[in-house]
Amino acid sequence: MPVMGRPRILHCITVYNGRAFVPAAIESALRMDQQDAEIDVLILDDASPEPGWSEELSAFCRERGVMYYRTPRNLGIPRNVNLGMLTAVKRGYDYVVISNSDVLYPRDLMGQMLRASRQKNVGSVTAWSNNVSLYSLPNEDPNRFLHDQNVVDWLHASLAGHFGDAVMDIPAGISFCILISTEVVRKVGIMDPCFGRGYCEETDWSLRSLAAGYRIVLAPGTYVFHHGRGSNLDAGLVSSDATTVPANEAIIDLRYPQFRTQVGAFVHSGVLAKAHEDAISHVVRSAGKQFGYSIDVGWIARDRRNEDEVNILLSPDAANDHIQATFRGFRLDLKLGRKNLGQEIRKFFDKEPNIVNLYDTGALASALKAEFSGVATTRTTNYPEKV
Predict the structure, then answer these.
(1) Where is the signal peptide (predicted)?
(2) Could you tell me the residue ranges of all domains in the chain?
(3) Is 3.90.550.10 the CATH classification of the domain at 8-269?
């Protein structure tokens, strides 16, 4: 029974094949906290051709109480998305979420997205991720370092604690995971089917919503893991060496000739770069405080068995002044002076390191050995282990 005042959200996951990743996305959606909203999950299967997959998926959804619909024929992403948008409007939901199927959601995603959506004149909210064009947090290898439900929950909680319900105005939303008020859908309309099998339809919709007076925003206090084109590769929309559909980009160029200039101005404003740096700095610092950190002095970092531990690699005797901390594929350049470096690092993380590995015997190594005498170890070889 719905709780008075709690909004209803129809969370739509669009599917085309994807046997390898769709079940995980559904399970992840089902574990989302419903304290702030009543969330129903709808799987929109766009006539997946993989033998037996639709039957398997239907049974999977039925066992978990998830709504499932398979189109009689392949409609393409825009029309499939429209089924979700129209269903949300027809059945009286307050919001609709349009999402890819190669994702993992944090438990508190909807609460954070809703808080962002309540900012003045917001029409749509896109989540932050690791593979969503401009709105990606730079990461060395997301599928290796971030593809874990517990990591997704932790990363989202870290960003939510730092950014709160702040929003960033962006040129266009991305429907890998986007929250839209059904009131906005009623006024702006649905996705334009002229975009065929998909790509750029959400850009067109975003710009139409902007023309109607709504803001298009990113919620930096959120994080959703995205495999990156997994669902679109399975659908045959793009090849492994392509990132979009040129014909659909041409439609955007014709309809909105200033759009590329606006995107360029947004990028060159530095707002996004500053937000990236701020987010990664907070993530690395929070991880160091919670999980600890190690320091390596030498040319080769030690074997990383604990990815939750932040690692700092220092070149011997200031061969260069580059001081970089890494955590689960995130890289942060630490702006610390070489003088009293040990104290500076301790101050940044507000704690002692777990271990200091000294693959060198120069002045820097000696200073750090004295500073962290209880955890510093001199290594006799520059290689962590014998091969």
Answers:
(1) none
(2) 8-269, 292-378
(3) yes
